[in-house]
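From the shared-data thread, chain only:
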Amino acid sequence: MGFHSYLMKLTELQADVLRISDIYAREHAIDRDRDWALLKLQEELGELTKEHLNLSGRARGRPDAEALADEAADVLGMLLIYCERAGIDIETAMQRKWLKWLKDGAQASVTPSGER
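Structure, as tokens:
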């Protein structure tokens, strides 16, 4: 997948997530400002953590790989909503922080945070 293909898919995903969030907000009369989005992101990260702990046998609860995947999707969805509410251009940020390593055939060793 080319450098620009990643960004196009992310933009499309964010637009779809925002449309779904609009429907949810209308149905439940929720004001989704930037603070709400960040708090929901934190909530979803906690749920992802819980499912991770269940799968690794370090928490009470039934291990469920599908539930882990669902919570990861919730984290991504809420991150995309937060970025829109906070005025973050996630495409530009991803280019600057991560995708630069694919551009120009960068061969340097990269840490998981995207740093050398």
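The chain is about 65% helix and 0% strand.
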